[in-house]
Amino acid sequence: MSSKITRLRGMYDVTPDQVWVWQKLEHIVTSVLNQYGYQEIRFPILEKTALFHSAIGEVTDVVEKEMFTFETRKGESISMRPEGTASTVRAVLQNGLIFNDPQKLWYNCPMFRYEKPQKGRNRQFSQVGVEVFGFDGPDVDAELLLMTKKMWDRLGIKNVRLEINTLGTAECRAAYRDVLIAYFEKHADILDADAKKRLHTNPLRILDSKNPALRALIADAPMIKDYLSDASQQHFQQLCEILDDCGLVYEINPKLVRGLDYYTHNVFEWITDDLGAQGTICAGGRYDRLVEMQGGKPTAATGFAMGVDRLVELILDHDLWQNEPQTQVFLIRDKQVPDAKVIAMSEQIRNELPELKMTVNMGQASFKSQFKKADKSGAQFAIIIGEEEMNQGVFSLKALHDRDFGQKQFTFAELVEFLHQL
Ligand code: ATP
Ligand code: MG
């Protein structure tokens, strides 16, 4: 006997009992994005590996150890996208979308990272990402934060906090970088292998380390805020003022970094304590230098990505939503009524009521077993097609939960009118 083949580690199926959460979440998030005038963009799952190396940076967890990379038959190195910013920048440049126009874009798609699977950390996971090109002011950063807050409100997610920080401009960071290297060099004995490797290539990334042994060292490290230019400070200040005026609560976390070289000015994370260690549900910031680094004209840019898998987990773990029945009406049929008649009648109903969610019982079964299935489906009503109904061209409708309603006979027109109100 052959053995069953199972799915890959760190990859998950979304079964029908949970898929409604994904659908509802996507619907709510998309409607907020539409409300703010953002447009969807789609790009391929596979890209040239070089794109991610140059856009994300060589010295990052993602590029160093998390990419699904392989060679094509012709020997070209390609990778499955681990995130969406690199592809979006490539796509807007390749399609001439930001030549003279600003763009407010979003995507919702699976990403792939070869990470150690654990709660909140999968090898395939979905991100809703937003990337905005052509606006350098703090107004658009504020809009992004208010838009994400609106999403949490609409999704019913409460226990979530916003942390923000600024990384200043590249020049501010260069000065800070030197001080940071000197500080970590002084404590080189405490650094782990990853941190040592990053010390001279990307020391900011050490601040983002998840290693508990480095926590105290990181807590005492010099802070970027002491190395910011006046202009950088002002940019951040203005963002804080807008958020204050709009009543959006935030904490300034001076240690918050997005370790990549292209980040400038404002960075942020939305964090919940309801998910354990992997509590960041949304992260982003300004990346004013990336478009130029990818061969475009200097273009201000800002964005974020939220982890849809973590949001779904949060909603399911804490029972934030009630499932609505997938079936409103269950069609039950007598054995005497031929298939052709049943199918034709149900098609007639569907043509009149395109929004109605109706399940038709397939095959022959006793009334008792069909009613059991109808109950299990969560339907409000059963339509019964018996011999009598077939001969007289009428439909019996039985309420499955409402005793007062009982069972009534309708003509086709009456049935349609009644079901229309569901
Ligand atoms: P972390 O610090 O948790 O590794 P990251 O900095 O690698 O996160 P980003 O690249 O900024 O994460 O991705 C944005 C969001 O996407 C994260 O905040 C998280 O919600 C989600 N995310 C990232 N990696 C995974 C993963 N492997 N599984 C599930 N969700 C993920
Ligand atoms: Mg990561």
What this model shows, in words?
The protein is an alpha+beta fold. It has 15 helices and 16 strands. The strands form three sheets. The chain has an eight-stranded mixed sheet. The chain has a five-stranded mixed sheet with strand order 13-12-14-15-16, sandwiched between helices. The model has no long low-confidence stretch (mean pLDDT 94).
> Low-confidence spans: pLDDT under 50, at least 5 residues?
none
The largest sheet is: 8 strands, mixed
Distance between the termini: 50 Å
Q: Please report the total strand number as a whole number.
A: 16
Order of strands in the sheet with most strands: 1-5-6-11-10-9-7-8
Class from secondary-structure proportions: alpha+beta
Approximately how much helix is present in the residues?
25-40%
Rg of Cα set: 28 Å
Instruction: State the shape.
Output: elongated
Keywords:
five-stranded mixed β-sheet; 422 residues; binds magnesium ion; single chain; alpha+beta; eight-stranded mixed β-sheet; elongated; binds adenosine-5'-triphosphate
